[in-house]
Structure prediction request, 270 residues.
Amino acid sequence: MPEGDTVWFVARQLRDALAGAVLVRSDLRVPKLATADLSGRKVEDVAARGKHLLMRFEGGWTLHSHLRMEGAWRIYPTGARWNGGPTHQIRAILATPECVAVGYRVQELELLRTVGEAARLKHLGPDLLGPDWDPDEALRRLVADATRPVGDALLDQRTMAGIGNVYKSELCFIAGVTPWMPVGEVPEPRRLVESAHRLLELNKARFGRVTTDDSRPGRALWVYGRARQPCLRCGTGIRSAMQGPAEQPGSDRARSTYWCPGCQAGPSPG
Prediction:
């Protein structure tokens, strides 16, 4: 499930593979980009902004994409077999003489002027992995609505850019509150901001997400995906329920949410 750390890692892989090279093939398989052709242009950079990917090309163009829940970019040596999914799921093919980057199930694929990136993503809050990370502004946005469930506030990309459903559940566990607790009742909300930044920084450059400091199978996450299993801290059975829809651009459905009734105080559904 792509979250800010995963997208940062994907951006680094794409940058390492493509930056400085000239495209010999460009195939963007969405109707609005059917006639767009980036071949012959040099890839100048690839960057992440929250959960958004920005591929920048000479001439001042940026290919913007979002992975959503199932999107992925795969990089293959020239001539290698592609195994990222069925052909009909391919949305983009970008090839250099040495390799091919294939975008499977990517969403929001669009070309925009590089100078317009900030305007396109102006709705995003402070980027947890960005060079301009601002914890004070993130905290201000987090506590702006004291009545809002903290899980919804964390998942809202206008609060902090990069938190997804996994981190939402894990951060609430670490804070000792259920995702349904109103933000105004969360003790020390600044710790949520600090924990979010720390965890994404720790996980951004490795495979596998760890929030417990224990990378062994079944012990890497406190609660996410562990419904009915015993809590790693107190032994109580982990519970799950749907929460949302989160009030953020592009979100239109509730998300599976996990918590430990023994370790987390506050309201819960049912």
Q: What stands out?
A: Confidence is low (pLDDT under 50) at residues 246-252. DSSP finds six helices and ten strands in the chain.
